[in-house]
Amino acid sequence: MPIAIDEATQRCTLIADNMHIEGEAREVTIVTDESLRMSVATLAGQRMPITEQEADALTSAGAVDGRRHLKNTEEGSII
Q1: 22 has which bridge partners?
Q2: Which InterPro entries does this UniProt record tie to the protein (predicted)?
Q3: pTM for this one?
């Protein structure tokens, strides 16, 4: 799991192979990356793809939720 949240302090850490960034949950912004077709967490200018479960956990801890739903516009799509 590329995130860790300390529920007592509301601090979170974004963890990847070459990245380990810590900050207040309220400093994290979660957005939808249209090209990746998934959520991305941004903290201290660094971006990290995350799962929807991780996005929900971060927003519950106080992160800013800037996600939006993407719609498929291809012909024949049921969406």
Answers
A1: 13
A2: DUF3203, PA2021-like_sf
A3: 0.81
